Amino acid sequence: MNRAQTKKRVTNYSATIFFCLILVSPGLAFSDVAGGWVAFNEMDYDKAISEIDKLASAGDPDASYLLGLLHDPAFHRLPSGKFYQSSYVDVAKAVTLYRRAADAGDGRAMHNLAELYIMLVDERWARYKPNDIGNLTSAALSLRRRSTPLLRVLADQGDAVAAYKLAEARRDEPFFFVAMDNARVMLELAAWQDDPASQLYLGRTFLLPRGMATRSGYTLDPPEAFAWFTVSAKRGNMHARVYQMEAAEMMPIRDHGRAEELARALLKTLAGKAAGNRD
Fold first, then answer.
1. pTM of the full predicted structure?
2. For residue 216, is pLDDT > 90?
3. Which sequence spans correspond to the domains of the chain?
4. Which fold has domain 32-157?
5. Which long-range contacts (CB under 8 A, 24 or more apart) does 269-278 make?
């Protein structure tokens, strides 16, 4: 066999191996984190899991973060304390997935894991011994310290949701409301650029959990929150629709008209901006 024939056979052999690898690993070949996020925002959680489960198992930090978020009880908890889609809540899975993403340097996962640990300590989700509670608290503080510079880099790059998470981590500090106001400014800029995630989180700044708002002296505005949730839901973010219903329940009936009017005004302004951009 001459050199050319040998090279051709090796090439064909390599191509065959590659093709076989695709056949035996269809999930890894065709799983899509972006598709997982789309399904997640549509609240089609089963589809999201099918899109990213194998990628998360293979150690992909973005897939691990998203899957952790899907199982995180804190994510499924509304400001009133009620839960939605609680059948997907799995504390052990959320912790494992967040840890995997955090070990890969994902600041979002570090932050959410710290928040989850604090929630476990505050509400005793599991039967922890006193030393276990101390360990969780220490781990949460350590994670917050590690996540802060990473989130700050994202915020400095214009990631408004990262700015929100930075402010959220400071909720027990005297100047929490200053950090949240700064986050709100960034979220407003992104929201007016028609980013559904920023519209959702902007609404959340007007609908903070009552305990958090009371400790910081922050003012709640459910009609404003309702308006931004409506806009985000119109853009396809189904989580915003859940928050929209929450805001409607939290405000007195006399405010419902104002909330609807605010939502219509926001949608009209955004439509005008979009038309102007096309021109």
1. 0.75
2. no
3. 32-157, 174-274
4. 1.25.40
5. 270/192, 270/194, 270/231, 273/192, 273/194, 274/194
